[in-house]
Amino acid sequence: MSLSKDDVSSATSASRSASFAGRMTGPDSVLPERECDPPFFGVRFWRLGVLDSAAVVLFWRATGNLWFDWAIKMWFDWAIKIQHRLMSSDGSGYYIGPSPAPPGSTGSSFRRRHMSKLIVVVEHARDWESYFPSDNLVTAEQYLAEGPGDAGKAEVINLCRSYRYLGLGYYCSLLAEARGHRVLPTVRTINDLSRKSIYGLDVESLDASLQKGLAGVDADTSTFELYVYFGYTRVFAMAELARQLFDLFPCPILKVAFRKTAHWEVESIRTIGINGLSESQEDEFAEALNAFSRKVWRKPRSKKKYRYDLAVLHDPEEDFPPSTKASLKRFVKAGRKLGIDVDLITKEDFNRIAEYDGLFIRETTALNHHTYRFAKRAEREGMVVIDDPSSILRCTNKVYLFERLTAHRIPVPRTRVLYRDHPEQLEKVAREFGFPIVLKVPDGSFSRGVMKAADVDELRAAAETLFKQSVLILAQEFFYTEYDWRIGVLNKKPLFVCQYHMAAGHWQIYNHDSRKDSYGDSTTLAVEDAPKQVVDVAVRAANLIGDGLYGVDLKQRGNEVVVIEVNDNPNIDDEVEDAVLGKELYLEIMREFLRRMVQRRG
Questions:
Q1: Is 558 left (phi over 0), alpha (psi -120 to 50) or beta?
Q2: How confident is the model at residue 292 (pLDDT cuts 50, 70, 90)?
Q3: DSSP string covering 38-83, please?
Q4: How far is CA 263 from CA 207, 213, 219, in A?
Q5: Average of pLDDT values for 111-126?
Q6: 360: which of 54, 144, 508, 590 lies 20 to 30 Å off by Cα?
Q7: N-to-C CA span, the chain
Q8: How is 185-245 classified by DSSP, letter by letter?
Q9: 221-236 residues labelled b (16+ CB within 10 A) or e (exposed)
């Protein structure tokens, strides 16, 4: 069934959700929880409670049950008193807590709001009339007038009408960054969206999602507009595209215009203020803001205070995770011992990234994967991140690594890059290397995408299989050893040394052909006990990538040492990589995070 422009518009203008009867109410709303007697269950509950009570009274009077009528009347009177306590002075019933300070006011009341976890900035107080008043709401003039002072930790959502250069919205984001607040949007995002010549290159990466999302639009339609609120949209077909747009340009509200020529393309991306939303769009914005800021109102996990917060991205369902559950627990303990609150997150927590000071990726990375998007988002937020996006980009492609290592005279096995359109190269490589020959796809991991050919026929068959995945593959001489060296390198210094032995009866560490994936044993050594040549070559190779955490795989045959690859996401497992250092290994990595977070905060 095709999707017309009117259908999509209708979807975006759907009736209010039942959970948003009076925007953003309920226990998970963006309103702060307050202590009251009885407990707060949302304004909508109390308003309906009064009406329901009246209906029940009338019913029981009609049936003559006077004894129950008396009990219901008592409930009715009590509910009225509670409602009066909760309602605002104007009787609207849309406000919980004390009346907000009038626009333009400053002083201690604003300072208390300023020190809260969330600050919502609007250009004019009337821009928020459709929503609940909140102690977290301030005007742009209030926020700018507060001055640097004791900035503290805060999340700032800048909802000014415009972010034009040197305007109020621009300065709110600029000073938020100067005060050490995490702000949405950042000045970088504002500048990126200022001209299409700047953001045009970024949106080219969205082409596949764009064509898929707009595939259902009527063929006669040549233009289309999409509103994106914190990466959300009610248009289901556009959900993935909306999320990716928010990944690229983290901004509260984006208005994206599309135009169809030969195919759909982004015509413009604009930021708009909440004052320009229709009533149905206000509801959609409220839902998105509620989902985006929900964790702000969670109760603290513990009474202990930590100086920094670190998110550890992992996948509980991954077959070969970089860290086991036991080692993840050791990271948590090590971090908290140093004053870092370590929180395990998954890919579902993308929109929570800005709440943390750092991101540690403990999931197998890839460029076309959420791990890379997490790293990019964390870097954009100014967080400490390992693996950083540049390291992922450089390490996950073996063609890049081969070029990088050989350009700096790092020894590698004899290697040739093969092109799908030049099959004649196979015979040339066979004559040059002899058999067996190893073929690799550029972005394989854990021994996947690697095949060994014993003769020309196997070489052609293996090449045909791998060329289906990539236009370029690598041919490499077979360099057999009983084990591979793995040197862990952190901040350009060796951290641990392991020997990974080949799987039983197999030529690789991992044997994916067995009925049950198997891998070889391992031996861990102290850095000083490993061959100096192996460690030195590994550190040189890692330093060409960056100053993060890397695992360099090498082979040694006599005095010959060659680098096989550099991993941006090396295994840190209990009883393997930590067999020598024990808890100190996890502490050392957490100390590096702490050092960088202290340095970043300045």
A1: left
A2: confident
A3: S----HHHHHHHHHHHHHHHHHHHHHT-HHHHHHHHHHHHHHHHHH
A4: 10, 12, 11
A5: 67
A6: 508
A7: 56
A8: S-HHHHHHTS-HHHHHHHHGGGHHHHHHHTTTB-TT--EEEEEEETTB-S-GGGHHHHHHH
A9: beebebbbbbbbbbbe
Instruction: Tell me the C-alpha distance between 214 and 222, whole Å.
Output: 11
Q: How confident is the model over 395-416, as a mean pLDDT?
A: 87
Compute CA distances 398 → 165, 213, 284, 561, whole Å: 42, 32, 44, 18
Residue 433 and residue 455: Cα distance in Å, rounded?
Answer: 12
**Between 446 and 434, whose confidence is greater?**
434
CB-CB neighbours of 485 under 10 Å: 24
Residues with Cβ within 8 Å of 214's Cβ and at least 6 positions away in sequence, in order, are 224, 237, 238, 258, 260, 264
Q: Which residues pair with 385 in a beta bridge?
A: 359
Does pTM top 0.85 for this prediction? no
Contacts by residues 505-514 (CB-CB < 8 Å, ≥ 24 positions apart): 507/452, 507/480, 508/447, 508/450, 509/447, 509/484, 510/320, 510/446, 510/447, 510/448, 511/447, 512/447, 512/448
Torsion sign over Cα 212, 216, 222, 223: negative
Structural contact between residues 383 and 359, judged by C-beta atoms closer than 8 angstroms: yes
The lowest-confidence range among 118-132, 195-209, 217-231, 469-483 is 195-209
pLDDT in tens, 48-73: 444 444 444 444 444 455 545 555 55
**Using CA atoms, how far apart are residues 427 and 423, in angstroms rounded to an integer?**
8
The dihedral through the CA atoms of 368, 370, 376, 380 has a sign that is: positive
Tokens representing residue 183 in the block: 């702000």
Contacts 24+ apart (CB under 8 A), 6-11: 8/217, 8/224, 8/235, 11/234, 11/235, 11/236
- Alpha-carbon distance of 549 to 571, in angstroms, equals 10
Cα 393 from chain centroid? 17
Q: Give tens-digit pLDDT for 251-280.
A: 888 888 888 777 777 778 888 888 888 888
Pairing of strands 118-122, 253-260: unpaired
Token pair 């690859």: residue: 565
Q: Where residue 485 falls among pLDDT bands split at 50, 70, 90? A: very high
Model confidence at 533: pLDDT above 70: yes
pLDDT at res. 377: 87
Please tell me the distance from the alpha carbon of residue 110 to that of residue 128, in angstroms, as a whole number. 17
| Cα distance between residue 103 and residue 105, in whole Å | 6
Kindly report the CA angle at 554 between 549 and 560, in degrees rounded to 5?
Answer: 140
CB 183 within 8 A of CB 173: yes
Rounded-to-integer distance, Cα 226 and Cα 12, Å: 9
Measured in whole angstroms, the distance separating CA 66 from the mean position of its chain's CA atoms is: 60
